[in-house]
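A protein record pairs a chain with a discrete description of its three-dimensional fold. The following entry can be read in just this way.
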Amino acid sequence: MSIDVVLGLQWGDEGKGKIVDVLAEKYPVVARFQGGPNAGHSLHFDGFKFVLHTIPSGIFRKGSINIIGNGVVIDPIIFRNECEELIKAGVPVKERLFISKKAHFILPTHRIIDAASEASKGKSKIGSTLKGIGPTYMDKTGRNGLRVGDALSSDFMERFINLKKKHIGMLKQFDYAYNAEENEKEWLDAVEYIKGYNLVDGEYFANDLIKEGKRILAEGAQGSMLDIDFGSYPFVTSSSTVCAGACTGLGIAPGKVAEVYGIFKAYCTRVGSGPFPTELNDETGEKLRKFGFEFGATTGRPRRTGWLDLVALKYTVMINGVTGLIMMKSDVMDTFDTIKAATSYIVDGKETRNVPYDTYAEVTPVYTEFKGWKKPLNTVKDEKDLPSEFMEYVKFIEEYVGVPVRIISVGPDRNETILR
């Protein structure tokens, strides 16, 4: 048996949580492979709304196995709070959740470094969620990090204190007031809490499940345009958000990957700084924000909004080897008379269909216009009942990127989903 991967193709916030929850019915195993609590995967069903930050979106499915892979970074306090909320809602988290010992801990001082670094950048801020994620990945690649499995070692406190001292030394470069002991006791208590969960050798655990014939759905966080290598650097996250990250973040060989589901919104959004060629700083952009309720599930920050960028979408389809597209929030544009999609860029006076290397390049989008469908989509249950204008938009997207749209979401709820 192999694994299938589901990931975002834009700048995050595409609706991955809902789709993983919908797909999880067919997968006994769901595994998060990268990122940290900067993720906010929103799920709506049975009149309830849940926002997951660290825990995989399959956690609500009866009998499911959910893995937090080695590529994930964990804030023990946020993790414990998330688990307690789910347990309060009747979800047997401890039975369903397995955590790789090789996942890294976010320390309280990682969050302080994150805040100090961002404050020092002034107008050049990246737009960090200030969760300490970047500094944690820096320690990981710098071979200084604390991993979940370290919590089981007799010298864990010594390792913790040594890393904390290193962080205090780093903070001397910033003019930033802080308390190094802030949240420390709560953090250590939360580490003890994590030790009560199923801590596993994640790579063996995942591969053994594959050998047993269990289907695994690998769940990404953020989006491909925020990838550390292929995103709009330096305005990116600190991990590999693309399909290759599922292999390194779970310890699964590339040859085991079968389907790659790429999720995108029918328009675009972005949180924080960085290039956004199709951004709309006008009434249309505000309408998208209002109707799409475009505010960060983790930070609450209003998202930047704009038309669909097919140049960027085709790029991320290529990078990920996407085999099937999943189109989200189509219903947000039900009342628009005209809908646009960028099909090329003007860069340095020349037209191109490539995403430029230079993040700071002057990019002017060239649009193709479509007639709006002017009908509510959230009541549609079958593909044959979708408006012809909407299907023309879908067909154009499929032809442009060369991949079929397999699933269309017409509302936030689990049952507002059309499988093609």
Observations:
- The chain is about 30% helix and 20% strand.
- The mean pLDDT is 93.
